[in-house]
Amino acid sequence: MSSSGWRRTWVLPLLVLGGLRLASGGVDAQGGSQTVTGSIIVTGGQKPPADRSGVVLWLMPADEATRAAQAAAPPPPRARMLQRGKRFAPAVLVVRTGAAVDFPNLDPIFHNVFSLFEGKRFDLGLYESGSSRSVTFSVPGVNYIFCNIHPDMSAAVVSVETDHYTTTAAGGAFALAGVPPGRYRLHVWHDRFKPAQPSDDPRTISVPPGGLSLGTLTLVDSGRTLTQHKNKFGHDYVPPEAATPLYR
Length: 248
Known about the structure:
Layout: H1 3-10, E1 16-17, E2 20-21, E3 34-43, E4 56-61, H2 64-71, E5 79-80, E6 82-84, E7 87-89, E8 92-96, E9 100-104, E10 113-115, E11 122-123, E12 132-136, E13 141-147, E14 154-160, E15 165-167, E16 173-179, E17 182-189, E18 193-195, E19 203-207, E20 212-221
Parallel strand pairs: 3-20, 5-9, 8-14
Antiparallel strand pairs: 1-2, 3-16, 4-15, 4-17, 6-7, 9-12, 10-11, 10-13, 13-14, 17-19, 18-20
């Protein structure tokens, strides 16, 4: 296929829900983009985890043709990570590098969203119920997100330099739709589940015109949970006083 043909297939609509690409079949209506499917299993723990959601997978172009197609991509869409019930939702959000992410506070209390660890460093300050602040994730990487008031609130924003990304469902299944045929490097990330061999990430795959099933990919349970952390000042969290219910 010519480079102009790659550009035409790239602009075919992607089915997007909540910032994640969902499968809609092996080949789209015009036959130009494919779906890459598979599932994740996890070994190494005391018993296999019942919930295998939140594993992030993305495809990076591995040849000039697929890189040229990606260069013609439109600007990344805006995304949202909610604060509700003293939790971040979703707990794992994938965005294309350069995307802005809104952090609306839907709780009847104050929150202070910050990230001072890997990836983008920011502090949104204290803000009240019904208000929102935003961050642009301008560099690729994993960004651990916390609240300076509530130590149990934690999440991750994964910024990737591609439009071909998804996360697994609870049963471990995944699908990347709208992928032009070509060679890609498949990356996999989860805070706790890791590739069995370092050479497994990334792995090079070829997506043919008929789509691709990767079958089962195996990850190992490292036992690690989302990064333990101090507050934004580097100190232990102090429980709020009873006289300040808006912080509780």
